[in-house]
Structure formats: C-alpha cells, structure tokens
Amino acid sequence: MRQLKVDGKPHDVNVEGDMPLLWWLRDELGKTGPKYGCGIAMCGACTVHVGGRPVRSCSLRVGDVKDDAEITTIAGLDTQAFHAVQAAWIEHQVAQCGYCQPGQIMAAAALLQARLVEGNPPLAEKDFDVTVDHVMSANLCRCGTYTRIRAAIRTAAARLQGQKS
Ligand code: FES
Ligand code: FES
Asked: What is the mean pLDDT of residues 72-87?
C-alpha cells in the first residue's frame, strides 16, 4: 500500500487518489490544524507544506502528491527550525478567532524558510514590508490581524537571522 509521510511519520493512503489532501489529513489522519475555508485555493486556511513549499491542501489531490514528498502540518512545525515563528506569534498575540492562523503560520514559515535557510539573501529592510505583504496577501483573515502578522514575521526573521550568523 502507498504511504505518505506526514509530520515525520509514514501513513497508509487508503483513499481514492482524487480525494483532496485536506480531506485526507483531517478526516483520515485527524490532523485538524489545516482548516477548510473556501475550498477553491483562495483563502489559505488549508495551507500545509509539501516538500517544504506551501500548498493549498483543499485543491491538491492526494494522488498528485509525490511518494517521497514530506507533508508538514502545523502540528509538525515545531519539530523544525520554525518554532521561532510560532513563538513570535504568541509574543505578538496575533490570533483573534484563530481560524486562519495555522495557514498564516505555515505561509510565514515557508517564506522565512525560503529566504533565510536555503541560502537566499535575507529580506532587505527596505522591502521587508512590501515582500511580506505581497506573500501573505494570499492568506485571508476575516479578523484583520495583518499588522500583527507582519510584526511577528519581523521578530521571527530577526531571530532566525541571528541564529544563522
Ligand atoms: S480552504 Fe484551501 S485555500 Fe481556502
Ligand atoms: S484570526 Fe480570525 S480569521 Fe484570522
């Protein structure tokens, strides 16, 4: 039987390949971090990482996930270097109702992973806000936590950059 690794552990895939990844994660594995918002890849509430990249799990079929791709939900994020993102979120008290927040954190973690860990130049101060707003604008928050999200990303980025040097 096919298996996929989720949050560091292999899981049997015993569903049809056209099931959305979000359904499999939530209904079959009990991973309730990723949320159902729009179901059409427009809100980002369902964001998880596949192979280290942020994806909309409501719109990716289980059958289209590569066998060797690691899937990470917010439940597995604290096993990675991006505990800093979650710590910054708490410090800035970002969440209000909380519904969008797992997706927001996964998007932010992927942004910082790409910019700070994979050898790319860090976010320059002069375009920090523009870059963060551009990337994070794909994740919607009905409670309007955008200002705190940006502040938390700034804190996490500073810490991760400090850890690198
Ligand atoms: S539920 Fe997937 S993007 Fe909205
Ligand atoms: S915190 Fe409520 S939707 Fe974002």
From this structure: 84
